[in-house]
Amino acid sequence: MRRSPSTNQCTRRLLLTTSTSAILLGLAGCIGASQSTDKQGGGGGHGQAGEGHGYTAKLQMQAVSNTDITQHVTMTVTQATNHADLLSRLSQNESVSITAASPPLQTDRPISYDGTVYNVSREITDHSPATRYTIALTESTVTAKGESVQFSSLPAVDRQKLVQAGLSDGNAVGVATTIEYTDEERSESDLVPSPTHPVIEWSSGNQARIEIRDHISITVYTYKYSASEVGSVSAYGKTVLDQYGFSLTGLSSDEEQIVAQARKGAGYVVENDQSLPSAFRSLVQRFESENAVQQIGASDVSGDYLVMHQNETYWTKLVVQQSARKS
């Protein structure tokens, strides 16, 4: 039987148990009861939703592979993201410590990176006072003698901060951002609390004037990250499917029509001013005895499911307003 969620909180952590391991799924993306604001396009009537209107119920089914399933239930980090270097080091069984005012990487769900799924954990190992500076790069075409410095000649701490802020090449003229320095880092800096050389020159020939526009005192924390490998993205998706998948068989012709519409782009939708058809109610009953991969809002049946139908697997979103189920 399904465990009834509290009114304003969805199930966020589920335990998948296999013969070889226990895989902790921190599932995000839950939608609170007051936040269900999905909209659908198309005309009115059962199976279509008018543009800009809410709905009483919706069933939407998307064919998925095992790898697709993993993308639904994990956070994907690619080589192009800011976290790629962190995940690369973690994937090599390193523990990585990062100092920041807030966690640079969330760990409330598994992470897929470079074809592999990892459970990532973090702990706070230290904290210290720091200053957050608002800095800006502005155009600078003329410099006085001695006021410019080559980027490569800046202290290592300044180069690192500018690279992390995306200001490593001088192309971001007109951009303001924030950079955090601990007290120890500030003592090594030529940029803060005020620039020793207000103009930076890059090897590309770009140059920009750096301005310190504001600062506030903060506390930064040292976050120690570690990771354990769970398996390939395909194998992980198969594990999720084995745990949550169920088959829809023996459907009536009306139920089959609903499923056919649900497999189309907008899905099967019951508008706000319409009651739930009996075939849809009976179809919903099939879901009541199954476990959602992740629940949506306060309804005891609304959620994302893995459904097998006619030799195909579907990531299935079922949303039924609680009031409609009582009517």
Please describe what this structure looks like.
It is a single chain. The protein folds into 2 domains: 13-74 and 232-321, no CATH class; 128-222, no CATH class. Helix content is 21%, strand content 36%. The chain contains 8 helices and 16 strands. The strands form 3 sheets. Strands 4, 5, 6, 7, 8, 9, 10 and 11 form an 8-stranded mixed beta sheet that branches. Strands 3, 12, 13, 14, 15 and 16 form a 6-stranded mixed beta sheet that branches. α1 crosses α5. The longest helix is centred in the C-terminal third of the chain and has 12 residues, at 233-244. The protein is elongated and about 85 Å long. The model is unreliable at 1-53 (pLDDT under 50).
Biggest sheet layout: 8 strands, mixed
The class by helix and strand makeup works out as alpha+beta
Overall number of structural domains = 2
Q: How does the overall form come out from the CA principal axes? A: elongated
How far apart the termini lie comes to 22 Å
What labels would you give this structure?
36% strand, 8 helices, 2 domains, eight-stranded mixed beta sheet, six-stranded mixed beta sheet, alpha+beta, 327 residues, elongated
